[in-house]
Amino acid sequence: MGSRLGQSRTPAWMALALAACGYHAVYGPATSARLHVKVVRALIADSIATDEVAAGMRDELAREGLLESGDGYPRAEIEVLQADDRSEGIAASGGMPSARATHFAVVARAWVVTAAGADPEDDTGDVRGDQVIAIDSASASGAGIDSRATIFHDADAIRAAARRVGRTLARKVIGEPAASDEVIDPR
Questions:
Q1: What pLDDT, on a 0 to 100 scale, did the predictor assign at position 2?
Q2: At residue 53, what are phi and psi to the nearest 5 degrees?
Q3: What percent of the chain has pLDDT over 70?
Q4: Does an H or E element contain 55, and which?
């Protein structure tokens, strides 16, 4: 029996042989248990951003079918470490420096605790979520900043960065391979 283009079949004897020899996927899930989510520490003043990190983790765990409601164990514990913003695309406008965009970032880490008093497992390390938004101009010529609109867009951007870091933490906790460009290098 041949295989068709685009289809591959692993013979049953090969699957059995691989399982018998102790073969397992290197990037398999670190945990297959359903997890509760708990923020254990927040070192930032923005409680909404902290809640968004947890919501992002819950979203991703739910998508994978690994979310458990409540505060029990096993659980993924989150520590929100930092939230910051900085100006991007600075240029002279009317003789004064002016930013064209704002870059928002949230840094957090997570780990799994299987029972009360148990040691943490599967620590993600510090993970950063970023969001960049353009500055709103008050006029069509871009002569000034529209502070009324900026307040709303800034809040949305920090929430988006926080939710993004929460989703990334969840993927790392469950052992899903991911690009490492969001992990902060400790060196």
A1: 44
A2: -60, -45
A3: 66
A4: helix 47-63
The domain in which residue 171 lies consists of 37-175
Structure confidence at residue 157 as a pLDDT band (50, 70, 90)? confident
Count CA atoms closer than 13 A to 19's CA, side-chain side.
Answer: 7
Number of separate domains in the chain:
1
104: which residues sit within 8 A by CB, 6+ positions away?
Answer: 83, 84, 85, 130, 131, 132, 133, 154, 157, 158, 160, 161
The structure tokens 């420096």 sit at 97
Helices (H), 77-178: 147-173
| The one-letter amino acid at 39 | V
CA distance 48 to 53: 9
Confirm whether 180 is domain-assigned.
no
- Average per-residue pLDDT in the chain? 78
Looking at the domain assignment, is residue 62 inside a domain?
yes
Secondary structure letter of residue 44 according to DSSP: S
Q: pLDDT per residue over 21-41, tens digit each? A: 554 455 544 556 899 999 999
Evaluate whether residue 137 is within a structural domain: yes
Regarding pTM above 0.85, the answer is no
DSSP string, 93-122: ETTEEE-SEEEEEEEEEEEEE-STTPPPBS
Q: 75: domain CATH number?
A: 3.30.160
Mean pLDDT throughout 110-118?
A: 94
**Phi, psi of 105, rounded to the nearest 5 degrees:** -145, 145
